[in-house]
């Protein structure tokens, strides 16, 4: 893990490479990085043994380095730097081991005799930088006075006269202090240093680009969350800087995302809202109103995303700027564009407005007397227009569902128009994500307004001339097993239960008379199905009643959720024994989710109820979090539903259609 001379040359000449190589998610690969990976893997698997061994090894190496130093050796500092990297990387198992008495390690001596002492030496900027970073990892073991000493050194490390590697390491250290002191609720220690930290970060960002800039922006974001009073006072520096960076690097999605995070923090602080909006909103409005050829590609879509973030994180009622200037700007921008991304982002922004301030936009009117609700309806119609790309409808389901849940009866005949447009779009859509988005509108309505929904769908002809109800149910039933996302899984599964219960209880012929595709028919004499055989003899399926198909789908949904919960419980049991390891795999960001779920193999192996599958987006969606359906225990819900259904007189007729696997699932819950 020791730094090589070649690395010193490369990092000194190219600070961006230093940031890249030191990042947890780096694509670089060196012996140093391989050694780190090995240390983390061993420490994760054998925590107690690793903590004891590492403490002993580090103590020995520090002693040997002291001997080398006393003998005039030049590279003793490399031993110190490597030890600090190793100890800081696995700081949780070390500190908890020391606290519990399992590990013998002189922590006070390490903090003052090694880290603090190394900060007072000028032997290498890389040792100085590593000392700053290492100190930020061990705040839990420090007194407030010692933390202040290290914080003062860290702020000094940001200064212009310091080498780039020291300044970059100081930025990483600041992130660590903010993170750790927020956890321990000791952020008051940071307060005296916040003005210097903000000034230093902004000054540093002006001198670097790319990797260094990203690191600075990420750190500035967490600094904004430390003390709302300070952040409100510093808004006049932070907001103009963030706007300038966003505009300068508008084609960089990482910078745009980090700028959005900073605006989110500012929007959540009431003392910042008015001033921030006065600076930011006119800029966003001017971008949305600009001719597309006059602004960089992607800038308008990103600006709409930022506006969405501000709306979502502002406590209502929304300001006049947001309602009278920003709202019409985003609505009109969405209506006049032919860019799919702008249309999608515009739809999501209007969903935020509908969710946060429906009454305000309903009361607002333009010069022609059109209300905000009228504009929302126009955007919905455009997103569902058969002439536009099907991908514009990828998120329209949530916009429509939010609109229905918030506006309700205010929509009147507009609701019928929306549902007609959805039916029309469904006949064209081929992509699963688009079909799922559209079908989810009917799933939501099935949960809240089932009888009116059935009446509406039966009043319209589908593409074959039969009622649209048959078309919707056929499309839904054929794709239910492919739907992804925990929330969508819960909404659709509960809706299926309600439809089945309604069909049986009310003896509803509209549902009972529909026939849909059942199980695939296999020819046992056929052997292996090649492509040529498949082309000559296409797949064949049984035809079964709709309510039977729904019942089979509910059983299979229960199987999926049982499997996902079992996997999750196993992982949690493993994690309880590896709590310390969770932190060690994280660098300063402490939010690394790894690559799970991003690889094709992970997605294929997941089902909709797996904890990590698309979960991040769902947890960030306030509309999802507010929906009581998101909070239900689906395994319990489906189990109880199926157990109650087994008491129905019709159960035996339904059970005749079950295959062996479905019977085993029911047996596992006592049916």
From TrEMBL:
<dbReference type="Pfam" id="PF25758">
    <property type="entry name" value="TPR_IPO11"/>
</dbReference>
<dbReference type="InterPro" id="IPR011989">
    <property type="entry name" value="ARM-like"/>
</dbReference>
<protein>
    <recommendedName>
        <fullName>Importin 9</fullName>
    </recommendedName>
</protein>
<keyword id="KW-0813">Transport</keyword>
<feature type="domain" description="Importin-9 central HEAT repeats">
    <location>
        <begin position="2"/>
        <end position="231"/>
    </location>
</feature>
<dbReference type="GO" id="GO:0005635">
    <property type="term" value="C:nuclear envelope"/>
</dbReference>
<dbReference type="GO" id="GO:0005829">
    <property type="term" value="C:cytosol"/>
</dbReference>
<dbReference type="InterPro" id="IPR058669">
    <property type="entry name" value="TPR_IPO7/11-like"/>
</dbReference>
<keyword id="KW-0653">Protein transport</keyword>
<feature type="domain" description="Importin-7/11-like TPR repeats">
    <location>
        <begin position="260"/>
        <end position="656"/>
    </location>
</feature>
<dbReference type="InterPro" id="IPR056840">
    <property type="entry name" value="HEAT_IPO9_central"/>
</dbReference>
<dbReference type="GO" id="GO:0006606">
    <property type="term" value="P:protein import into nucleus"/>
</dbReference>
<dbReference type="Pfam" id="PF25018">
    <property type="entry name" value="HEAT_IPO9_c"/>
</dbReference>
<dbReference type="InterPro" id="IPR016024">
    <property type="entry name" value="ARM-type_fold"/>
</dbReference>
């Amino acid at each position: 893990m020791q730094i090589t001379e070649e690395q010193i040359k490369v990092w000194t000449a190219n600070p961006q490479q230093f940031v890249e190589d030191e990042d947890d998610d780096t694509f670089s690969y060196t012996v140093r990085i391989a050694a780190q990976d090995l240390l983390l893997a061993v420490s994760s698997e054998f925590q107690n043994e690793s903590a004891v061994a590492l403490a002993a090894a580090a103590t020995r190496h520090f002693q040997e380095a002291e001997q080398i130093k006393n003998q005039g050796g030049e590279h003793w500092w490399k031993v110190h730097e490597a030890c600090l990297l190793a100890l800081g990387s696995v700081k949780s198992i070390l500190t908890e081991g020391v606290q519990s008495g399992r590990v013998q390690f002189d922590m006070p001596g390490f903090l003052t005799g090694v880290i603090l002492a190394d900060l007072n030496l000028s032997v290498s900027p890389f040792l100085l930088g590593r000392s700053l970073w290492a100190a930020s990892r061990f705040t839990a073991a420090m007194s407030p006075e010692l933390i202040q000493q290290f914080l003062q050194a860290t702020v000094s490390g940001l200064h212009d006269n310091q080498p780039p590697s020291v300044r970059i390491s100081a930025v990483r250290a600041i992130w660590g202090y903010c993170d750790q002191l927020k956890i321990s609720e000791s952020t008051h220690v940071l307060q005296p240093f916040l003005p210097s930290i903000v000034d230093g970060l902004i000054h540093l960002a002006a001198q670097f680009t790319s990797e260094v800039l990203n690191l600075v922006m990420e750190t500035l974001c967490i600094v904004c969350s430390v003390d709302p009073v300070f952040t409100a006072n510093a808004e006049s520096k932070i907001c103009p800087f963030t706007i300038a960076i966003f505009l300068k690097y508008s084609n960089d999605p990482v910078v745009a995302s980090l700028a959005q995070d900073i605006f989110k923090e500012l929007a959540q602080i009431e003392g910042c809202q008015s001033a921030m909006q006065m600076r930011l909103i006119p800029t966003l409005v001017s971008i949305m109103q600009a001719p597309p050829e006059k602004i960089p590609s992607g800038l308008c879509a990103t600006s709409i995303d930022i506006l969405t973030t501000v709306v979502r994180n502002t406590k209502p009622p929304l300001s006049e700027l947001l309602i009278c200037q920003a709202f019409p700007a985003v609505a009109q921008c969405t209506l006049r564009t032919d860019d799919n991304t702008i249309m999608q982002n515009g739809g999501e922004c209007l969903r935020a407005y509908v969710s946060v301030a429906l009454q305000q936009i309903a009361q607002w009117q333009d010069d022609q007397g059109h209300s905000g609700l009228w504009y929302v309806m126009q955007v919905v119609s455009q997103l569902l227009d058969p002439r536009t790309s099907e991908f514009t409808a990828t998120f329209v389901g949530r916009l429509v569902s939010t609109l229905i849940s918030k506006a309700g009866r205010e929509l009147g005949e507009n609701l019928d128009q929306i549902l007609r447009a959805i039916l029309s779009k469904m006949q064209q859509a081929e992509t699963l994500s688009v079909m799922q988005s559209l079908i989810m509108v009917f799933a939501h309505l099935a949960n809240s307004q089932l009888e009116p929904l059935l009446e509406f769908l039966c009043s319209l002809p589908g593409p074959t001339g039969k009622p649209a109800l048959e078309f919707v149910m056929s499309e839904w039933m054929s794709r239910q097993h492919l739907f992804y996302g925990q929330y969508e899984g819960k909404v659709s599964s509960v809706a299926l239960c309600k439809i089945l219960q309604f069909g049986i209880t009310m003896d509803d012929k509209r549902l009972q008379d529909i026939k849909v595709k059942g199980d695939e028919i296999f020819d046992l004499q056929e052997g292996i199905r090649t492509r040529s055989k498949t082309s000559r003899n296409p797949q064949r399926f049984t035809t079964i009643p709709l309510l039977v198909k729904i019942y089979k789908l509910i059983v299979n949904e229960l199987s999926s959720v049982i499997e996902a919960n079992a996997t999750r419980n196993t992982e949690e049991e493993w994690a309880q024994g590896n709590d310390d390891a969770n932190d060690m795999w994280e660098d300063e960001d402490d939010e690394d989710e790894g690559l799970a779920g991003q690889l094709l193999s992970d997605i294929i192996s997941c089902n909709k109820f797996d904890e990590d599958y698309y979960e991040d987006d769902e947890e960030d969606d306030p509309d999802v979090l507010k929906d009581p359906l998101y909070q239900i225990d689906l395994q319990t819900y489906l189990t109880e539903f199926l157990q109650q259904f087994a008491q129905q007189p019709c159960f035996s007729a339904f059970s005749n259609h079950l295959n062996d696997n479905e019977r085993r699932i029911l047996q596992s819950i006592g049916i």
